[in-house]
Amino acid sequence: MYTVFSTFDVPPEKADEVIGIYQNRSRIVDTAPGFLDFLLLQNEKRPGEITVQLFFESKSDYLNWVRSGDFKKIHELEKKYPDQELASIIPSVSQHKVVAR
């Protein structure tokens, strides 16, 4: 299994707005080959720190996802988000191979 964390900081007063966006996400990734799960995490001590966690069966499945047209389409839509402060945030991404469960 392979997991990817995308962590970004938003102004704390906009955290609920961002959470709402992800609660109503397109779910396109859910149909990607090898996709297993999606989690949205909010740091309890820093509520403006939001993390998207994706799980895939393998690294190659994840890489195929990020190279897909659907991935590009989703991220192009993000750039058009009306709140340009949120649209311009670049996440910190880390990738991990799951070695035990």
Give a structural overview.
With 101 residues, the chain is of the alpha+beta class. The chain has a single domain (2-97), classed as Alpha-Beta Plaits (2-Layer Sandwich), CATH 3.30.70.100. It is built from four helices and four strands. A four-stranded antiparallel sheet has the order 2-3-1-4. A hairpin with a 6-residue loop joins strand 2 and strand 3. The relative contact order is 0.29. Pfam families: ABM.
Keywords:
4 strands; about 30% helix; single chain; four-stranded antiparallel β-sheet; alpha+beta; 4 helices; about 100 residues; Alpha-Beta Plaits
Describe the structure in brief.
This protein has 101 residues and is α+β, with helices and mostly antiparallel strands. The protein has a single domain, classed as Alpha-Beta Plaits, CATH 3.30.70.
Supply the number of helical segments: 4
Distance between the termini: 10 Å
Radius of gyration: 14 Å
Number-wise, the strands total 4
What is the N-to-C succession of helices and strands?
Answer: EHEEHHHE
Per CATH, which architecture?
2-Layer Sandwich
Briefly note the structural class of the backbone: alpha+beta
Biggest β-sheet description: 4 strands, antiparallel
Q: How does the overall form come out from the CA principal axes?
A: globular
Level-1 CATH class name: Alpha Beta
Beta-strand share of residues: 25-35%
Uncertain stretches: none
Count of all domains: 1
Organism: Alkalicoccus saliphilus
Protein name: Antibiotic biosynthesis monooxygenase
Domain ABM: 2-90
Pfam family, one: ABM
